[in-house]
Amino acid sequence: MATIGLCAAAAARGSRVTPFKAVLVTDDPHASGMEGHLLAAGLSRDSRVGPVVVRRSAFDRGEAELLGHRLGTVRLHGSDSADLTSLPSVAYQHAHDAVLNALHALVATFEHVVIEGAGGIGDADPAADLPNVLAPRAVDATAYILARCPGHYPEERIGALESTWFAAAGTQVAGHVLTGCPGSCDAVEQAYGQPLLGHVPLLDRIVPGLPQRITVETAQSYLSACESAIRHHAPELLAAAVPASDGRS
């Protein structure tokens, strides 16, 4: 949601923006999984924005493709995390190099590249985590934590994220955005010294009845809801992550 909203908001003001997700897990046997992201940025199909696609074949495994070519079978953790290190070492290295080449090419072409992570915190070893560590680090990207914490106090959840996984990864966090968190969010800023850049309701709270997945019929409504969520509930994130060249946000 945040990546789509940032891309849509930046594109609406005329910025050249592209999404990027190093490794994407999908249940769709045909789609790339990045169609909504590209639509938000006003772009046509571009395999570089999602170079590795893993098509789920079972609960805990999937078939990995690199730019449309089969890499092999990989282990899956949860709904959106693939362990590429379960590939043969040569295939993993090929994927690693191709992902970084694709990202560098996009950085050289676009004003803004919005990098989306994959999976949950701690799903992968930071030393081999392409989506959340290796790709962003390769282009010196700034990290923002988007955390959904129903049933948790925000400051406890965010503290756990930052003190464990991000510290191990050596990643600098510039701020947090919370979704669906109960209670006050001020403690995040006070306790951890990082700015709180937004508190975004779940999309179905913004547009009641809105499906959580993009279809042809719901595409425009979904994109508008994502853009509205970022503009109205996380304007500080928009200004920090994809600043306009003329100072507008």
What key attributes describe this structure?
5-stranded mixed beta sheet, 22% strand, 249 residues
Characterise the protein shown here:
The protein has a domain at 2-139. The two termini are 18 Å apart. The protein has helices at 2-12, 35-41, 89-109, 130-138, 154-169, 186-192, 203-206, 219-233, 235-241; strands spanning 17-20, 23-26, 52-58, 61-66, 69-77, 81-83, 112-115, 143-148, 173-179, 196-200. It is built from nine helices and ten strands. Helix 5 packs across helix 6 (186-192). The mean pLDDT is 80. The strands form three sheets. It has a five-stranded mixed β-sheet with strand order 2-3-4-5-6. Strands 8-9-10 form a three-stranded parallel β-sheet, with helices on both faces. Strands 1-7 form a two-stranded parallel sheet. With 249 residues, it is α/β, with parallel strands linked by helices.
Topology:
Blueprint: H1 2-12, E1 17-20, E2 23-26, H2 35-41, E3 52-58, E4 61-66, E5 69-77, E6 81-83, H3 89-109, E7 112-115, H4 130-138, E8 143-148, H5 154-169, E9 173-179, H6 186-192, E10 196-200, H7 203-206, H8 219-233, H9 235-241
Structural class: alpha/beta
- SS strand fraction: 15-25%
User: What is the terminal-to-terminal distance?
Assistant: 18 Å
The total of helices stands at 9
- Which sequence of SSEs, written as H and E, runs from N to C? HEEHEEEEHEHEHEHEHHH
Q: What is the radius of gyration?
A: 17 Å
On the 0 to 100 scale, the average pLDDT is 80
With strands numbered from the N-terminus, the spatial order across the biggest sheet is 2-3-4-5-6
The low-pLDDT segments are: none
Overall helicity: 25-40%
Count the E strands: 10
Oligomer kind: single chain
- Morphology: globular
Largest sheet: 5 strands, mixed
